Amino acid sequence: MADETRSGGWTVGIDIGGTFTDVVAVGPEGLRHAKTPTTPGDPLAGLEKAIAAVDLDWPSIGSLIHGTTLVTNMLVEAKLARVALITTAGFEDVLHIARASRDDLYSLDRPPRLASLVPPELTFGITERMDFRGEVIEALSEAEIARAVAFVRATRPEAVAVSLLHAYANPEHEARLGAALREVLAYVSLSHEVSPEAREYERTASTALNAAVMPRASAYVDRLLASVPETTAISLFHSAGGVAMPAVLRSAPLALALSGPAAGAIATADVCRKLGIETGLAFDMGGTTTDVCLVAHGRAEIATNRKLGGRPVRQPMIAIETVGAGGGSLVRLGAGGLTIGPDSAGSDPGPASYGLGGTEPTITDANVLLGYLDPARRLGGAITVDPAKARQALEPIAGRLGRPAGEVALGVLDVANAVMARALRRVTVQRGVDLRGATLVAFGGAGPMHAVSLARQIGISHVLVPEFSSGFSAFGCIAAPPLMAKQKTIRLDSENFDAARLDRERAGIRSDLSAALMRSGVRPEAIRHAEQLLIRYVGQSVAVEVPVGPDADLATIGRSFREVHQRTYGYATDEPFQIESLRIEASAPGADVLSTRHGATGTALPEAVSVLPCIFGPGGAVATPRHGRETLPIDVPVAGPAVIEDAWSTVVLPPGATCRRDTAGHLHVEV
């Protein structure tokens, strides 16, 4: 974090992905970066292995910022704790009724939705009642609290979720009940702390999901803190795009659900701001998945309604779309043709071309067969690829289709790009953004290989491959600001506007967020606040996000709301409106890691390291020069066909594309 580099001298960012772990270290001797295989069974061992990979140890590290897929994996794999739910009597079925809709309207052979996270025998209705204004209708008695505690003792869950009706408006009953439950159980999740908003189902589901990941996440945090010396300040990257101390996130581990992918989005936002890119698309293709996110005006888009592992989550988090198409994603031939993922070969055994025991074809094997990866190089000094093993893995599919293996490999890339194109359209076209004017920011181990062909497919003309693209998310961990965010339902009508209440709500949220950042070591004077109001016309279902200043009055709020509504929907009226929710972010400046770097000198392109055949289309193999990224002079164009390589990533330039390197080391590609 910005103010936490201690005597060790090195600041380290680590992003633990599904296949590889990326590490970046900035310190007295410059910058170091490496990539190591992820160890899913023991993430702490993987963390220490990554530190060793950059020749550091704990005493030399002053600050470590850590992104993790621990919570994401728990949700995807459904490895969740046994949870009890305590809710207002009469609302015990809220998780079972859900939204009374089907996940897939036309698949009648499947259950309409996932089963409730909490079974009926672990659900308890407690006698109490608040109205939507937070006024007590029926008080919570000590006898009822005692009954709830007795229920928890008898059923012995691993964690408890408490979601009382309208607790977002007045948390007094929940807070009393939570205090009593914490006397008998370590893991208690309270809805007014997790998601202080209206919409009972989403709030309760988020609270239960937070409880379900608490035991394992808290155990990992405890092990992490026990392993780190006091001389090292450690922070965790959270889903809203900032960093916080582990102790702050121990009671709200659901905030870590998009920890790793969010770091890449924040790094993209940082680069877009520095380069003046108005609309950027973060494209992070790793070994297991591809994550995409819209970055507008230097800010990654925030969403509050998401589904993770098929379950709703209502919390502020970076709006990332994830698809199961990474370099290690398995390729199969089904009745409808080629399919990609979502399962992956991972790092063990890895793609067939790695020669580590894998036999099933993957996207990486298709890239190897097309000649994009050089079999004479050791990726990261550790991994070599074998085109013969890649061909052997793809031959069964080629035989069934009656096509050459190289043609099948091109088809694999086309299908993979189509999957990723759909994800990019979901974060742009489906939200009213014309992606044709955007810049595709490609990173991750496999992103730069696919970026140009993907950009052509969706109509994007400019691709940016940032410096250290393979470990870019780890850079995001370091560059991200200390940040905490909170969103709360307030329901203020324009016709009966209560300015004093809005000020009170603002002050309360700011105080809570500032206190959390100060517990993370941030100086009070460094904290800045950004505010958004979620506003809708009376009778509308969906609110729009309206950025406002801290002293905005009703007239200013109304004018800003109408401007946003006009821009979003094409019209605006003078009808009454309602401020549904207030969202505030508290942050402090982050580190400036990707500062200006100087490339090789010269005005001419150096001679290619080698020339190898690559296949770009049905015309067959083309002699393709290969260049080392660090040897490229600044602003000297590289024309395709060409391949640009560094230790861990490969940039593929098909015929017709041109590339130049800037002073920061970024590659700009005109497709």
Secondary structure layout plus pairing:
Blueprint: E1 10-16, E2 20-27, E3 30-37, H1 43-53, E4 61-67, H2 70-77, E5 83-88, H3 94-97, E6 123-126, E7 129-130, E8 136-138, H4 142-155, E9 159-163, H5 172-181, E10 188-190, H6 191-194, H7 200-227, E11 233-237, E12 243-244, H8 246-249, H9 259-275, E13 279-285, E14 290-296, E15 299-300, E16 302-308, E17 311-318, E18 320-323, E19 329-334, E20 337-344, H10 363-369, H11 387-401, H12 405-426, E21 439-443, H13 447-458, E22 462-465, H14 472-479, E23 483-493, H15 499-519, E24 528-537, E25 544-548, H16 554-569, E26 577-587, E27 610-615, E28 621-628, E29 638-639, E30 642-645, E31 650-653, E32 658-661, E33 667-670
Helix pairs in contact: 4-5, 9-14, 10-11, 10-12, 11-12, 12-13
User: Biggest sheet, in brief?
Assistant: 9 strands, mixed
Determine the mean pLDDT: 88
Total beta-strand segments: 33
* N-to-C CA distance: 37 Å
Strand coverage percent: 25-35%
* Gyration radius, rounded: 26 Å
Helix content: 25-40%
Shape: globular
Poorly predicted segments: 1-7
Structure annotation, total helices: 16
The structural class is alpha+beta
Pfam family, one: Hydantoinase_A
Domain Hydantoinase/oxoprolinase N-terminal: 12-184
InterPro entries: ATPase_NBD (IPR043129), Hydant_A_N (IPR008040), Hydantoinase_A (IPR002821), Oxoprolinase-like (IPR045079)
Domain Hydantoinase A/oxoprolinase: 203-481
